[in-house]
Amino acid sequence: MYEEKDEEGISLLDLFKVAFGRKILLLIITLSITLVGILFVKFYYNQNKRQYYVNYEYVIPGIEEGKYIDDSKFNYQMLISPNSLNKVKESNEEFKNINIEKLVDKDGIQVTCDITRNETTNEVTDMKFKLVANVKYFKNGSQANKFIHAVADQPYNKTLLLLDTIKYDSLLDTYKNSNVYDTKADCLVKQYELLQAQYEKLIEKYGDVSLSDGKKLSAYYNELTIYFTENNVEALVTELQKNGYVKDFTSYEAELLNQKQKYESDLQLNQNKINNLVDVANSFNSNITAPDLAAYNEIIAKLAVENAEFERKLEAINKQLENGSSDPDYETKKKAFDTKIEKYDEVLTNFTNDFKIVVKEVVTEGSYVSYNNNTVKVQGGIKLLIAGPALLILGCFVGCIVNICLDHKKLGKKEEQKETVENN
User: Fold this and answer.
1) Helix 181-206 vs helix 217-230: crossing angle, to nearest 10
2) pTM to 2 decimals?
3) Sorting pLDDT into bands at 50, 70 and 90, what band is 215?
């Protein structure tokens, strides 16, 4: 039995006895390394590697088209611009210690967007956002949670503000300020088309929702379309072209004459181009090597269409000049037209005011930011529950190595004793 032990030399049991011999020293080293390691992970490593994040989507009109409700551009990267972040900071006293300059310069905050498109139309069908911010720029998780949500909420808050400032009646303002019938009629037609398109967008985005007055969104839309189906506003344009009314003939006559001169000049210029192209094309007819005449014919046809439009405009101007100076019933007809166009303005003003109330209620009630989680989550870094046990093992291992280094002489004496036994 002694021979078997001698052949083994220093046994594993001897090594363990030495490694764990200085228990107090082992305990001190183990706890020291564990404590220092935990402090390092918590206050340095995790501060640089850990990030707060939140996933969310916008249910706001226009965002998927890259614009706000007033058609101004929406760029999600502007959410983390210095100007935007400073506005968020100023909105809450709790954010006063957040260093926006460092947050931006060190890329401490980032926003990404995962866009889904329709395979056929390539239109955006879904946009999922993720906002990430480094832990070290915040006092605690509560502050980070409020700040990150405030940054993400910016488009929603801006939309609510736009509802109070956006002008849906700018065309009606142009109508009132204009002294030209063509402009006034055009404004009324476009105002009707604007209201119709806006109602269709609301219904597409939010569905046929019920409003506080009990009416559905489609009821407002139907009232608008039915009225202007029975009272076609585009008939104003047709009547103008037919009768050549002028709001203020004295001040408008000079402008009409200038327009007439310009259209006559453009008409003659186009006709000269057509004549030249026809001559060139004819010269090719007898030539076998003549180039393809299709390009010439296409240009000639395009110029001919332009000339037809110039002739129509000249005819309308001539009628305005003629009626303004010679038609004895002109003023009577014009007054009747004034009454008609003012009625359209009154009706469209009422429809527009109704729409302002409708769009504010629908968008306010139906728009929101949809978060996957109400509080920010944490990613990156090392969890202390994992780091703690690992550091304990590391500390114990280092302590054992230190003990072996300090008591290696004991192992040497053990080896000498074994050699003595062998010699005897």
Assistant:
1) 150
2) 0.61
3) very high
**Structure letter (DSSP) for residue 81:** S
> Could you tell me if 178 and 120 lie in one domain?
no
3-state secondary structure of 216: strand
CB 389 within 8 A of CB 41: no
Do residues 220 and 141 share a domain?
Answer: no
Pairing status of strand 124-134 against strand 368-371: unpaired
- Alpha-carbon gap, residue 20 to 401, rounded angstroms: 10
CA 337 – CA 343 distance, rounded (Å):
10
Q: Tokens in use for 68?
A: 């706000």
Angle at 186 between CA 222 and CA 318, to 5 degrees: 140
Does residue 156 share a domain with residue 175?
A: no
- Give the Å distances, CA to CA, from 242 to 236, 261, 330: 10, 21, 13
Sign of CA dihedral 343, 346, 350, 353: positive
DSSP string covering 296-336: HHHHHHHHHHHHHHHHHHHHHHHHHHHHHHH-TTHHHHHHH
Judged against a pLDDT cut of 80, whether residue 44 lies above it is answered with no
Let me know the angle formed at the C-alpha of 58 by 53 and 64, rounded to the nearest 5 degrees.
120
Nearest to 185 by CA among 249, 237, 247, 232: 237
* Residue 351 domain boundaries: 170-366
Coil, helix or strand at residue 53? strand
b/e burial code for range 124-137 (CB count within 10 A of at least 16 → b): eeeeebebbbbbbb
Q: Count H helices, E strands: the chain?
A: 17, 5
- CB count within 10 Å of CB 372 equals 11
- For residue range 282-315, what is the model confidence (pLDDT) as tens digits? 776 555 445 566 777 888 888 889 989 888 888 8
- Could you tell me if 201 and 345 lie in one domain? yes
Q: What share of the chain is helix, strand, coil (3-state, %, to 5)?
A: 70, 10, 20
Looking at 130, 165, 200, the residue that finishes a domain is 165
Question: How far apart (Å, rounded) are the C-alpha atoms in residues 82 and 105?
Answer: 9
Task: Count how many domains the chain has.
Answer: 2
Q: Answer yes or no: do 133 and 241 share one domain.
A: no
Q: Is 206 exposed, middle or buried (0-12, 13-18, 19+ CB in 10 A)?
A: middle
For residue 215, give the 3-state DSSP assignment.
Answer: coil
